[in-house]
């Protein structure tokens, strides 16, 4: 159930009409019109406002037609093209609180059956700000859309997609994946394993710090990027453009095309680059000569 905290919930925003004396249908009851042999996704609208829509998205498997089962269940929050402010935090009683543009909503976050409930936030256009607190452990996906967005993940596994604009993407304390896409983006890894792609634009990628077992993959993509390794094992791929790659702990450097510079390489590091790029020869890092385009295959 969803209810704004600022005033009593209006039931017609999310409740389905039923015949007198019959219980309200549950989204967790198998639909009668499932197509055999393929995943079936059903969307259940919880609340629609001028600036935000909440719905629950449930995917069913029909591998056993007699016993359909839920294989995916997530809450989807979508805002419009204005500059939106979204804050998500844990709430007592297995709930989540969403504060969106100054208005607060509370949703049930516990599912009666099937996999744990995931969370997707889609902000579309505008310069949006999305912050998910670390006490939110749900699997998270955030898609920023156009505009210069700031997105910070919480304590669950996360996927952050900046899309258009100059975005700042901050991964959380669990494993995370981030893509900047268009624009000059800033991507910062959290304490978990990280995989990040700058794609187009002059991007800055920071692997982040955590345990010595942390694993980081950074790919600058096109244009002139800065890549900074973090704790644990790092693989830095500059991609196209004139890039700067800075090592830390254990690092493998792949420079790609362009005039690149490598910093803070160490004796146990591996460098895959062209001889005309710059790095500290005296450190004794392993060197493998690369030809243009080979490292990005």
TrEMBL record:
Coiled coil: none annotated. This is Alkaline phosphatase. Its EC number is 3.1.3.1. The keyword Secreted applies. Pfam families: HemolysinCabind. Residues 1-40 are annotated as: Disordered. The lineage of its organism: Bacteria, Pseudomonadati, Pseudomonadota, Gammaproteobacteria, Pseudomonadales. GO terms for molecular function: alkaline phosphatase activity; calcium ion binding. GO terms for cellular component: extracellular region. Keywords: Calcium, Hydrolase, Secreted. SUPFAM superfamilies: beta-Roll. Its main location: secreted. The keyword Secreted applies. It is found in: Secreted.
């Amino acid at each position: 159930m969803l209810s704004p905290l600022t005033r009593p919930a209006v039931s017609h925003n999310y409740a389905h009409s039923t015949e007198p004396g019959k219980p309200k249908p549950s989204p967790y009851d198998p639909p009668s019109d499932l197509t055999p042999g393929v995943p079936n996704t059903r969307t259940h609208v919880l609340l629609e406002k001028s600036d935000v829509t909440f719905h629950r998205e449930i995917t069913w498997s029909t591998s056993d037609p007699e016993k359909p089962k839920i294989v995916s269940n997530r809450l989807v929050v979508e805002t419009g093209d204005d500059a939106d402010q979204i804050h998500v935090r844990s709430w007592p009683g297995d709930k989540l609180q969403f504060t969106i543009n100054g208005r607060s909503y509370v949703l049930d976050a516990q599912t009666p059956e099937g996999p744990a409930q995931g969370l997707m936030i889609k902000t579309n256009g505008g310069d949006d700000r999305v912050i998910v607190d670390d006490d939110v452990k749900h699997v998270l996906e955030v898609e920023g859309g156009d505009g210069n967005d700031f997105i910070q993940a919480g304590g669950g596994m996360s996927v952050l997609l900046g899309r258009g604009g100059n975005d700042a993407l901050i991964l959380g304390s669990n494993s995370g994946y981030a893509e900047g896409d268009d624009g000059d983006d800033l991507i910062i890894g959290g304490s978990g394993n990280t995989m990040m792609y700058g794609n187009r634009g002059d991007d800055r990628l920071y692997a982040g710090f955590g345990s010595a077992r942390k694993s980081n993959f950074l790919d600058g993509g096109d244009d002139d990027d800065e890549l900074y390794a973090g704790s644990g094992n790092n693989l830095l791929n500059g991609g196209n453009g004139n890039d700067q790659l800075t090592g830390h702990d254990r690092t493998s450097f792949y420079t790609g095309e362009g005039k690149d510079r490598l910093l803070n390489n160490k004796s146990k590091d591996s460098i895959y680059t062209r001889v005309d790029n710059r790095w500290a020869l005296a450190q004794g890092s392993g060197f493998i000569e690369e030809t243009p385009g080979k490292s990005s295959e």
